[in-house]
Records
---
Amino acid sequence: MIKVIIIGSGNVAQHLIAAFQDSQNLGSEIELVQVFSRQTTNVSNILDYDKITDDWNALVEADLYIIAVSDDAIADVSSQLPFKNRLVVHTSGSVSLNALDDNNRKGVFYPLQTFSKNKVVDFKTIPICLESENATDFQLLDKVAKAISEKVFAINSEQRKALHVAAVFVNNFVNHLYEIGSEICQEHQVPFEILKPLIAETAEKIMVLSPEEAQTGPAKRNDTATIEAHEAFLSNENYLTIYKTLTQSIQHNGKKL
């Protein structure tokens, strides 16, 4: 059995705990032996209490230690580990492998997905991006990742940085645009629910078309009259700036603005 310990108790950690437990229940060779959390109550409802610790010195020996904490805490957490020459990885999309402490062998185990509490995800469909310092450690990471996901990739730190930036555009920024759309609807007493089929179709369309092929709308058509009408309608200066910036970007189709 490959023994795994997760350090952290936030969204990513909780989803990883659930994924490893499901995998173990299906008879995989991966065993989640322990979780470290300063707030033990965060995970006590999804894991046996005897597998949870808030004491660094109580960490048991394992083949892999997964640090699933906020980006700015990774270096500090890795420096507190009370052992040497074990395989320690983090789950961040934007933090370099080198942020981990030199006392241990380093790697990255990055599940590229947005995680929210109480929102179940199918981990089998989530891409996991792996990086390590040597081939032997990569083989172990690959085996662990394939126990919970069908989409596993070797991605170095520079590539992962690019992926994370791209993910911010297609996820975080897009969700912010949903929020703006929702606020515009609320302001004019229109149910946001009406837009959900359009949102779903937009997401489904890029599964069969490239984003460039899927692009529609007044900016793509260079429909000046509609664009000017929209700009006149938007009284919120922030929304107007975003509208103008995105319209110009679509019209230039990726060229320098």
Note: The longest strand covers residues 30-36.
---
Amino acid sequence: MFKKLTLVASLALLGACSTVPITGRRQLSLVSDSEINTLAATQYREVIAKGPLSNNSQQVAMVRTVGQRIQAAVERYFQQQNASDQLAGYQWEFNVIQDDAQQNAWCMPGGKVAVYTGILPITQDENGLAVVMSHEIAHAVAKHGSERMSQGLVQQLGGQALSAALSTNAPATQQIALQAFGVGSQLGLLKYGRNQESEADHLGLIFMAMAGYNPDGAITFWQRMDSRENQASPPEFLSTHPSNGTRIADIQRELPEARKYYTAR
């Protein structure tokens, strides 16, 4: 009887799949778009409320300009693919959090973006910022948050539906959500996390190119990032991110495709 139930559960998980745009990879999807967008909006409001938000008008204007251009490119891409329904429920927001120690940015499902001031000296200009923001937005439109959330529900809560998990164990579910959205740290599924990062690099190159930013700038950005990283950083196989050397090599292979979408503004 137990084996039969396990088989049924396994078949159900196999059926709960979606497809990543551009790459065509199949991914686990146990959470509906409306559920995860609602949860992300709640978590985003909490993070933004804690802030503190930057009061540097130039920084905020740059982040919102770049974000809105990439947003328009993403919407245009999905419209061209007759897949605009995949962005249903998106309510884009772009905010800058004042934290010079955080060299980071993220995008939650539904287009909720935050950029930390600590990444801006490395991005240097709009094109460098577009590398980072297009990568983070790619995580959202590739539904990596939903995929990570689904994996977390399977690992920690036995594959419970999101609504049931929230009602029975809301704190644990919210922690899974923060990890899934890239706001917290995540252990386990290391190789899969690196695959998602590489996938976001690939999609991000295309989105930034469609937005009129030079995708070749991704190479110089990651070279700058590499020069700043601590030499004591863990080896690649212990990290959820590809090493910068691997990332740069992958981007170099993908640039010819991205350049086809690029028209300088």
Note: The two ends are 63 Å apart (CA to CA).
---
Amino acid sequence: MRRRAAAGLAGAACCLAGAGPAAAGSAAQPGQSVGLPVGAQIPHGLYLITASNFGVRDTAPGVTPLNVNTVTLAWATPWDLLGGRVQLFAGVPYSAVGPQNSAWQSGVGQPLLAGQLAWDLGGDVGFSYLLGGYFPSQTGFTTQAPSLTHRFALSYVGNDWNLTGHLFYGHFLGDRPPPGVATYPDYMNLDLTATKKFGKWQVGAVAFASTDLPAGVAGYRSQGQIAVGGLVGYNFGPVNLQAFVTRDVIDRNYGGRDTRAWLRAVIPLYQDKQEAAPGRTLVTREQSR
């Protein structure tokens, strides 16, 4: 693409693992990819992505705070397959929760390994498909069962815009959840982004939704939510930062609405000098003209 605005950030969206505490629900944290042009190709290179979010759910009579931190390696390879760029990801989360104002618990969540194909459709439009696997975790308050994740993204990144829709479908493997968990239902998440760049700044709106799919378990109460928020980002050169705040406007069977602050940083460990503009972390040579 001639203008892949901040396309290198796409890697961050693909490996955030571990949704945090839930008796069921998504293995992928809802909202993890907002702000990112995940349908666009990433400039060839190796990237380190750190992401952290902290929020509080109003689960009366108390509240439930949750912190999720993830370190991810993203490799935009020099290879193509079926006309799409091959991109590989590996991420490990560490989470902490204090349910209903009780003692904090913490532990390593589910690691994720994934591969993605990203196609340049022309006209500053890109499409990507990701297939990944979440590995089992022994941390009791997070999702523990292995699962597959399929992700489909469409991005427009022309004229310094990032208009992206990112659909997640997760499928759990095995029939027996841990003791005390009724079921692990399959799930769907949708992350939406509408941001614009002004020089080194990026501002705009974000939103996400999530829902459990029918589980076929008598008495199970399906969970879901819709959240909206605003984002601001700044490209420091060697590091690209994004910060955003989201708030649930609808929740179903979560016990209350969540308010969450997010921070994401992308550090290129290596970039192909033929694709990356000198001194600009996530911008291609063509973008800098």
Note: DSSP finds no helices and 13 strands in the chain.
